[in-house]
Amino acid sequence: MPPTPLHPGDRASLDEALARAWRIRQTNFPPVLYASYPLDTAVISLTGTWCALDCAHCGRHYLEHMVPVGEALARVQGATSCLISGGCDPRGRVPVVGRHLETLRQVRPGRRLNWHVGLIGEAEAEAIAPLVDVVSFDFVGDDATIREVYGLEATVEDYRRTYEMLRRRFRVVPHVTIGLRGGKLGHEEPALEALAAMGAEELVLLILIPTPGTRYAACQPPAPEEAARLFVRARELLPHAWIGLGCMRPHGTYRDAVDVLAVQAGLNGLVSPSRPALEEAEHRGLRVVRTRECCVFSP
After folding, report:
1. Is residue 169 part of a domain?
2. How many domains does the chain have?
């Protein structure tokens, strides 16, 4: 979808904000942009296509494209890493403990494992610890967004407590989805502020993809410029953190526009960046380092 044009005054304000964010990047990071093409990361579902939730942005759609754990040994040949994910139970937890752990022990040799676990507890975290290289943790900054999107009675405090528990054991990369609540903004800045207060050292930003068959199918993602202001806010709140723009974001002309803004805002990495973004990186003197795994393995 084409980007929404800005009023000249708004464009000037955004340009100033982007310039601030770029200076923060220049001060704290080498001139390198990571471009992740996750061809060598297999995505495994612990639950097949089952999920107890019917999340407004997903509706179990993304589980359909994952490798069922029962087929993993036969289908991950050639992969150098895996994302271990799956559907959630009614409390928002991916059922990480079970018979599938033996399969994952066989999958693990020679591969790094990135786990998407949801709101698990300490016992589950302890059980999977020998198999974890990194945890990707979706963080939400507003109770109303949690209820509307996930249908959970959980609160921001539950997310905060789980994140801190996981960090005591693992390297954890929080993920914040811009426009998660049907394209409307609201939870993002509180989420970024909470993560900054907890000392997050890494962050992946995502952007809502209105997906056919979901409750948000007819919604629009935030305008690229709105997303860019949150890129800037993240860079300002987390000046020393590695920040990436992840795979979940709209394609087409939207991606062309938002990816350029991500480079201008001083983000450290992008998954499958658009050609205009790579040209912007070259223009700014950034050396592009290409990788073939999930972006959390780039830093």
Report:
1. yes
2. 1
On whether residue 2 sits in a domain, the answer given is: no
Calculate the alpha carbon distances from 295 to 202, 217, 226, 252, 292 in Å.
Answer: 11, 26, 23, 21, 9
225-243 pLDDT per residue, tens: 999 999 999 999 999 999 9
3 domain-assigned:
no
Residue pair 202/241 in contact by the 8 Å Cβ criterion: yes
Q: Output the pTM of the full model.
A: 0.95
Domain span at residue 163?
Answer: 8-297
Alpha helix segments (H runs only) across 111-238: 122-128, 143-150, 156-167, 188-197, 224-237
Does residue 158 lie within any of the structural domains? yes
CB-based contact 91:52 (threshold 8 Å): no
DSSP 8-state symbol, 222: P
Using alpha carbons, select from 187, 183, 184 the residue that is nearest to residue 217. 183
| CATH number, residue 259 | 3.20.20.70
Cα(202)–Cα(195) distance, integer angstroms: 10
Q: How many CB atoms lie within 10 A of CB 126?
A: 11
CB within 8 Å of 84: residues ≥ 6 apart: 44, 46, 96, 104, 113, 114, 115, 116, 131
Tell me which residue of 123, 127, 140 sits closest to 185, measured CA to CA.
Answer: 140
Which backbone phi and psi does 140 adopt, to 5 degrees? -120, 140
